[in-house]
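Hi there,

I know you've been waiting on this one. I reran it after we fixed the sequence typo, so this is the corrected version. Both the input and the resulting structure follow.
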Amino acid sequence: MPKKPSPETLGQNSNSEALGLTRETVDPAQITRRRIALDTLARYANSEVEAFQHFILLTNFPQYTDVFANYAKAEPILGPVLKVVHSPEHDISIIDYRVGSPMAALLMDVLSHLHPQGIIMLGLCGGIHRRQRVGDFLIPIAAIRDEGTSRHYMPLQVPSLPSFMIQKYIAEELIERNLTFMTGVVHSTDYRMWEFDEKFKARLVEEKATAVDMECSALFTTGFARKVPVGALLLVSDLPMNPEGIKTKASAAEVFERYTKLHLESAIAVIKRINAADKNSRRLNLRRFSF
């Protein structure tokens, strides 16, 4: 497993001064993509970059960071943009980046400079398939790029795919836990209130998407472009193809109450599974890319 970046390479603290980017000392030669990326991560998270662990869990919701903090007996760190919890004991950091493909892509970009062993998105999605029920899981095998961010990282003809190996370990864990899940294509869009757009809904049916979310295609595409292994375990939180299935404040609260802990525990177990495989095989390298 790769070592975490050292203080000598990243700076002793999370502020710009530690990274050599003060107004008094700035040198144009120092303004590199890596330095700015790490400075952005430290600034947005209000956290030292050295504190980020080898495995990263991503979420859109503070309930997940709170549950993880309780599990890891660690204090959440609230930055101006991100909420994070670090657990050196479990070698995991969890980041709540709020919502949207621009923030998802930016986070993947800046995290790529820390060379994480693996990233798993714990997202919620709207189920489209007739057999899906609230509380089921989806393991996306691909994402439809209907958002405006991923095109800045890869041409539109490039498919948006997660790390096969991470998705494999997720599937193995869900099977062992006897949890209900599907595999399929998730349609990632930055279009909100689409539930009332009949043409958009007809397009979802035509393309045979399994679910809808807002970030997976940006995460997968940016991860591929920046050589970061990323997977996703999505929870079906609503069934928005029918009016009575659209998420409300009350139904969302029920989903968080019933499924957040299970969702998070499953992802932590996946990371343990990956670590166990890593110890048993010298060939396991989730960060192996062929370009």
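Quick highlight: The longest strand covers residues 118-127.

Best,
R. S.
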